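[Help] Beginner question about ligand-bound structures

Sorry if this is basic. My supervisor gave me a protein sequence and a SMILES string for guanosine-5'-triphosphate and asked me to "get the holo structure". I don't really know what that means in practice or what format the answer should be in. Inputs are pasted below exactly as I got them.
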Amino acid sequence: MQIGIVGLPFSGKSTLFQTITKTHLDPSVLTKAEAHHAIVKVPDARLEKCSELFSPRSTVHATIEFVDVVGLKKGESGSTQFTTNFLSNVKTNDALVQVIRLFENHTVPHPDGTLDAARDIASFETEFILSDMTIIEMRIERIKKQLQKIQDENVKKELPVLEKCRKILETEKPLREVDFTKEEAHILKTYQLLSIKPILIALNFDESQLTVADTVKHVAGKKEGKNTKVVSFFGKIEMEMSELPDDEARVFMNEYGIKESALDTLIREAYALLGLQSFFTVGEDECRAWTIKKGMTAQEAAGVIHSDFVNKFIRAEVVHYNDFIASGGSFAKAKEVGHWRLEGKEYIVNDGDIMEIRHS
Ligand SMILES: Nc1nc2c(ncn2[C@@H]2O[C@H](COP(=O)(O)OP(=O)(O)OP(=O)(O)O)[C@@H](O)[C@H]2O)c(=O)[nH]1
Ligand SMILES: [Mg+2]
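Answer (accepted):
No worries, everyone starts somewhere. Holo just means with the ligand present. The predicted complex, written as structure tokens, is below.
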């Protein structure tokens, strides 16, 4: 899973990227034209607890990849240019974090002169919608021509889906707000559309601002919906904080009333936004968190561990993390009270299930 960090120039993208990926980029690298990638461990207190109980040789977290998407520049006309190069860098991501600048900093002024969350959010939305519209219209034209020559059923199936998208985009609505069936979503996937991507709007405030809660509420009220979430963070101090040892960071967080680091909030929200969840495998050898989509069956989840397990799946031994802990971290006890179960192929895996796959 790859999440792209996007935003206007000087909105704090690289600051956020470095904070959540705990990397330090040289200022000379930051201005270069390539995107920066980093794989981040998904923090999970439940996995830490399992590790404490089993003292395994290795503990493996779920991971998520973050990308600092570069290439958005102020054009000669003064307005920001959404080049094709930039848009194609956005396309490859599964979801987006859009950084919105709400901090004052006179040494690096906002490209549009003032701070305005609604305007900045809308500027991306418009570009994404326009880009999608172009792709969809071109595809519709091509399909119509193709169908005049040969009646290909697979190609024919695409048309109503594309027409549905066109109608929505014409009302200037992003595609992420619309319900698509599994089949429709599958067809649309190949087009790498932009306005369909789940988005996390990350408002970047100054630590001195007193209006944080009100602004977040206001923006969330207007924008939040299906596949859109709004979060806030303090770019500059979170970055300073990420450079401190853990205990000092905690003191610092208490002082500023920060409950959770930007990394933890973002990962948690991004995870949920993508419809992802974790299940665990535990033991003396390895404790590990695995990422799956919500609604996956035990058989599908087994396939994430090893593709062979799909066909060789017999049963899954399942106990939920909470029940396991309630049973004092003992499988025997969990079995005794009936929390430990044998489940078949069709069992829908829950977030936090501890599983062992029985296979032939
Ligand atoms: N005061 C203040 N300054 C910040 C904050 N976040 C970022 N900055 C500063 O704003 C400038 C731009 O931040 P970056 O993280 O480089 O922004 P960016 O979006 O990556 O910028 P480009 O890659 O050039 O488009 C830097 O000088 C940061 O130190 C913040 O929360 N408060
Ligand atoms: Mg940058």
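A couple of things worth pointing out: The chain has a mean pLDDT of 90. The CA atoms of residues 140 and 159 lie 7 Å apart. Feel free to follow up in the thread.
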